[in-house]
Amino acid sequence: MEEAAPPPRKRGRPRKERPKEEREKEEGATEKMREKKPQNSAADEKYGSWKSLVPVLYDWLASHNLLWPSLSCRWGPLIEQGKFKNRQRLYLSEQTDGSVPNTLVIATCEVVKSRVAAAEHVSQFNEDTRSPFVKKYKTIIHPGEVNRIRELPQNNNIVATHTDCPEVLIWDVEAQPNRHAVLGAADSHPDLVLTGHQENAEFALAMCRAEPLVLSGGKDKTVVLWSIQDHVSTLTADATKPTGSGGSNVKTTDSPSIGPRGIFQGHEDTVEDVQFCPSSAQEFCSVGDDSCLILWDARVGSTPVFKVEKAHNADLHCVDWNPHDENFILTGSADNSVHMFDRRNLTSNGVGSPIHKFEGHKASVLCVQWSPDRSSVFGSSAEDGLLNIWDYNKVGQKDETEGGPPNPSPGLFFQHAGHRDKVIDFHWNAADPWTIVSVSDDCETSGGGGTLQIWRMSDLIYRPEEEVLAELEKFKSHVLECTSKS
Fold it and tell me: φ, ψ for residue 304 (rounded to 5)?
């Protein structure tokens, strides 16, 4: 008799039920626990080497210590544009151990503009403290931990969240009342609940750029599509009703709900991620633990249009569709690699080889995302604590350094190593295209909590080489003068 397969390891911080006495004892000593970090000399040395290079590699960086890890991070709307910095909303979560409620956090972030921060200031951060650039604006008490956050392109104040349940929850974050997250406090009311999954839908979630549509995937092996067109205009008015006070037991059934527009079947295991075609409300794709990449078209039915049976040699965790060239799709997997597919090469009989495999991670890839600024640039984050930035146009280019070792990861041109544990999620800032927010779950290296970092690499790294050399030539005499004095 075959042994049952072990349950899939959750990508976030594992939650363990503990005795009440143990939780109460820890509640008042969380900060002390965080100070007693496990000794990891190799990781500390690697981190120290990275930190010493921060003034050279980065135009700006802010590091923000999180008491509880966040499994998702997303940029919200731009609030104010200033001469030296912009103010922008940031969506995070707090995944707690049950001693206090799980929350959806709306923060205000001050994003320093390019070439404003002095090099000596860029490196002056303490990874064990909170950043002055990030301020909590509002807290929503979430029914269960927040596994995924996605904002509505038509209105960034409306977000969807996934938790450990079959429903998708819709929130108007500006209209929601600010809550104090204490033990026993009632859950906030979602403004809308989307029903249709038969089992938990924890991670796969996407919003459509073309129309106010929501896409989700779950453990029931289905991809579910909803339209919230009729509800977007009324969400704000409905959301002004106050939520219950602490002690009551508020259920999501108190919120209005709608059923799906369509349910799509074709996966043979949990659906881990979904994504719309950037210009279409009818076309989308999905990936899952069955190692499949599936393309769908709602106009032709609820079965796959294209199905790549073996997109990777392990579970697929993430997918993204290129907003600049809709022929290209990225997938990330537990086999530590990122694959790029050209949908023009896919066939209906399950055949489809990636046009390139990007191998630069040493652990499972958790998130992939195309740059909003460059059609050939994308990022990938993984359980190895790295966030890699790639340019597929650099694949195949000859190394200009004669006699140097060959590039082991073609296309890789920047590696953000500021996190010391698995990088769960990241998001490019469309309002400031080379600025990225990323979050890591630090429970394995520091005993708890997480790290949020907002960073922008130096433009000398990604600008055309001839531009950079021309600029550096202007400062050549100054550099030589400083060198001779030293």
Answer: -60, 145
